Amino acid sequence: MAETRSVCCYCGVGCGVLIAHDGTRITGVRGDPAHPANYGRLCTKGATLHLTAQAGGRCLYPELREDKAGERRRVSWDAALETAADRFAAVIREHGPEAVGIYLSGQLSTEDYYVFNKLMKGLIGSNNVDTNSRLCMSSAVAGYKATLGADAPPACYEDIDQAGTIFIAGANTAWAHPVLYRRIEAARQANPQLKVVVVDPRRTDTAREADLHLAILPGTDVALFHAMLHVLIAERRIDADYIAAHTEGWPAVRDLVEAYAPERAAQICGVPAEAIVRAARLFATGPTLSLYCQGLNQSSHGVDKNAALINLHLATGQIGRPGCGPFSLTGQSNAMGGREVGGLANLLPAHRDLNNPTHRAEVARLWGVEAVPAKPGRPAVAMFEAARRGEIKALWVVCTNPAHSLPNQTLVREALARVDFLIVQEAFADTETAAYADLLLPAASWGEKDGSMTNSERRISRLRAAVPPPGEARADWAIAVDFARRLEDRLGRDRTLFPYETAEEVWNEHRESTRGRDLDITGLSYARLDTQGPQQWPCPEGAAAGRARLYADGVFPTVSGRARFHCAGWQPVAEPADAEYPLSLTTGRLRDQWHTMSRTGLVPRLWGHVEEVMLLMHPEDMAARQLRDGELVRVRSRRGQLLVRVKAEADQRTGQVFLPMHWGGRFMAGLGTNVLTVAACDAVSGQPELKHAAVEVEAAGPM
Length: 703
Ligand code: SF4
Fold this sequence. Notes:
The chain is α/β, with parallel strands linked by helices. Helices cover about 30% and strands about 15% of the residues. The protein has 4 domains: about 1-55, Phosphorylase Kinase, domain 1 (2-Layer Sandwich); about 65-135 and about 335-535, Rossmann fold, CATH 3.40.50.740; about 140-330, Dimethylsulfoxide Reductase, domain 2, CATH 3.40.228.10; about 585-700, Barwin-like endoglucanases (Beta Barrel), CATH 2.40.40.20.
């Protein structure tokens, strides 16, 4: 038996793992005691990774459907990729490069992302490449850029140990980032003075353990943060020197929050004014580390929410120092890496912006292409809407399951059925999206491929292959390279853009693209990561190590060098509850399942925590509808309905119901949770409002 050092492929904590194997089969996994993200700890999902590797259910061979009505049948890789290149080239010739799209995943490696991004923006000539990270992180990206000037979380995990207040907003850390939560628990034990404040409409496990829980109404975070700033100003708890020396835009925000007295915000947010004042005082006492995630991001005003929280840090000067800072937690294991290589419809490699002509020219030079197209591509929701309208005719879905995870499922599935040619590249055969594939390409999974990933604290870890992939499965980046060379032939180009034979060669090109940028990693190589272990960016050539915290000198990567206060008032949710749909539906994670359960759903042990999807509802709301605990109910929204059993939950606020995001059509009646959710998106980030939809619940009646 041997052990191979790698990293967990689930959440953004990015825990190091040691994979036990005999060279052909993964037999076990344990936490890597040397990895600074987890020091040997693993949560239930990480500790069962080897069971997902043993569970079967894999895509083993390419499968092609000759016509939409027919069955897919096994074909060779050569036939599969020749067909794929023919079909994509034909669409590009007949309808232009914007008639094709690629939809990626935050579960991919940085190298995978880099190649697919270059394929679309450098070879095909459109920016129609986006990712499921759009559903989880894009508001955080835009929030950081709007205020701090760059998409760079300034804090690190060590700050948990040094904080005086941990302010958790829109995150159930105990379930969604469990190893990080263990670190919070340890910090509380070591420092009894440490206070934890949780902002969450639900009384989650994280909220239950908090010193102060603000159970705000969904979508009212901006009003809460503005009211806290109002209190800080009134009580002279702001850092006027920091504001004067390192920020801009303060007078406008100061005037804006005047209208958010705690008493008024209490009306909007549905929490007592005294609790808002207490939260503000704890925030000012600090040092305060804010941890936030989907509750802020998955909103039609997600950027405003992120930025309003960052305003609090700027106003109190709590950034760039140990124990404080606005720290956005990434949902997926490599959402950060995808952002680094610009694998979104509006970004370019190394945090360059598509709308910046200089940046486009730099990338074109790096890649050796004439130009990078200026027109932004379609972000996730818009990409599938375009496919449904027939504007995207060839679509490639890589390592993700949009026929489950995107909002307003009925329309998404119409889109998948409508595209002329759909490639689904997947490790696991039984996903809702794979059922629609015209061409199914088998991909390597965790423990089977080389590469790198970046976790929430900007720390880059190496992914290493312990065993070869099963059947004919291949690494995602290698499939993209093989396809790209064939497409180069058909588009009359020389085979020059994709010379890579190894993941390391892709990494080396990505590394060079970061030279002189805020995330400069020119000092890192695979060899250095192997010998010195995971490193945080930036780590430029000559640096002794990566940098733990950013902005310690108070200089920000904006034109003026100052951080910017963001000035935007509170706006209600896109679809407020009303007489017809009087309940507010929130969706979220469970402790032991991951995303659409294509992996964790295969492991019986992980069903022990929650065996069946249930709608959580307050007993008073159930009584008003004459519903009994455990009864089958129909949940309806303007977009669709599903049948599910209801569970009485006194911790749920009245007027609100909760469904886990994990169950799709494979595990429940109907199309799953997202048949109900609304596709309203943040105007800046394009992130959909998965945290709120107006619904009604009624007895299912006779079946
Ligand atoms: Fe994996 Fe996240 Fe659990 Fe760590 S906390 S073991 S990264 S799922």
